[in-house]
Design brief:
It is a single chain. Helix 2 runs parallel beside helix 4. The chain starts with a helix and ends with a helix. It is globular and about 55 Å long. Helix content is 40%, strand content 20%. By secondary structure, the chain is of the alpha/beta class. It has a six-stranded parallel beta sheet. The chain has a six-stranded mixed beta sheet with strand order 7-8-9-10-12-11, sandwiched between helices. It has twelve helices and twelve strands. Bound molecules: guanosine-5'-monophosphate (5GP) and manganese (II) ion. Manganese (II) ion binds next to loops.
Length: 317
């Protein structure tokens, strides 16, 4: 029996299922949870997605009524972690995972710690949502327009709109099939990339104002503090995309972005061609993908910047 068959067996056994994703959820984390939630509903399961905060840009996606700030029970029959590399990244809601009778991990991070009883991790997929699409096809579960919209949101977010290296022929084939069930790709595209609120604009402006070019213009660095967020009345997720501003400048190989979060400093790294930023984040206890990775660290912005920069310099050589 394949892992997918075993996962289905666990799903069939369970009545109450909780879906969880990584802290500071992005479009892939949210889209994957919503698509899985709607698919499980169609299998007549009681499903809750525990996700205390998520960016407003995603609030119109199908299935958001399944999202709860807290779970309605302490012990679910089954917990499924989606788009999440380690149990620690489940953050404040780790207990829903650990206390569940059965635990499943579905993901696409090469640094996944395989922390479930069953782990279905496909490193080659550019988004967790793409892993789910393959799964639903294998199970012969119908992918409706709503489910497809959530999956496409995940794929568009994590591939940067079909531009990053994990984007494959399969990704475009899935996009074509989702188009044929009525998924509005241009609308999702606009939602993910072109909708900018006043506060996210102001936050980006601050970050760009203090952006530094280092190492012969091969590295950019910038940061955002809680104080900055207060100043512009920032909402959840307003910092999304800032790290790409540096990465998109011609000649830049690595973009470093630090932003203050409740439990420390979140470092986001992006690279263009040859630096494996996932390896750098792993050194500090984080992880991610070769060209997009992150880690939470403790300390002052300046000190963290120096620590990261030292490793980036080494990798540039
Ligand atoms: P971001 O910079 O957008 O927060 O994250 C980029 C990628 O790195 C995402 O795939 C994310 O899941 C992963 N990532 C971010 N922070 C961490 C972390 O602290 N630990 C691990 N293992 N992965 C992380
Ligand atoms: Mn993802």
């Amino acid at each position: 029996m394949s892992t997918l068959d075993n996962v289905l067996k666990e799903i069939n056994k369970a009545d109450n299922i909780v879906l969880l994703a990584h802290e500071n959820p992005d479009g892939d984390a949210i889209g994957s949870c919503l698509a899985m939630g709607l698919a499980l509903k169609k299998q007549n399961k009681n499903v809750e997605i525990v996700m205390p905060k998520y960016p407003r840009a995603f609030s119109n996606l199908p299935g958001t009524e399944l999202i709860k700030k807290e779970g309605s029970t302490k012990k679910y029959d089954l917990a499924i972690a989606l788009d999440c590399a380690t149990v620690k990244l489940l953050n404040g809601w780790t207990n829903y995972f650990e206390d569940a009778k059965s635990k499943i991990v579905i993901d696409h991070h090469s640094t996944n710690a395989m922390f479930g009883d069953l782990n279905y991790v496909d490193y080659s997929a550019p988004a967790c949502a793409q892993v789910l699409y393959t799964m639903f096809m294998y199970y012969k579960w119908e992918v409706t327009q709503d489910i497809g919209t959530d999956l496409m949101t995940g794929i568009i977010t994590d591939t940067g709109g079909f531009q990053y290296s994990g984007t494959s022929k399969e990704t475009f084939e899935i996009a074509a099939r989702l188009l044929s069930v009525g998924v509005n790709i241009p609308k999702i595209y606009k939602q993910v990339f072109s909708t900018c609120t006043r506060s996210s604009y102001e936050l980006k402006k601050l970050a760009l104002d203090r952006l530094e070019f280092l190492e012969d213009n091969k590295v950019t660095f910038t940061y955002i503090t809680k104080k900055d967020e207060e100043k512009v009345n920032a909402e959840t997720g307003d910092y999304e995309g800032i790290v790409n501003e540096g990465k998109n400048i011609e000649g830049v190989e690595v973009s470093i972005f630090i932003h203050e979060i409740d439990n420390g400093m979140k470092v986001s790294l992006r690279s263009n061609d040859y630096v494996n930023v996932s390896n750098i984040c792993l050194m500090f206890g984080g992880g991610g993908h070769p060209k997009a990775a992150g880690v939470t660290m403790q300390g002052k912005v300046e000190d963290i910047k120096e620590m990261i920069l030292r490793e980036v310099k080494r990798a540039l050589k």
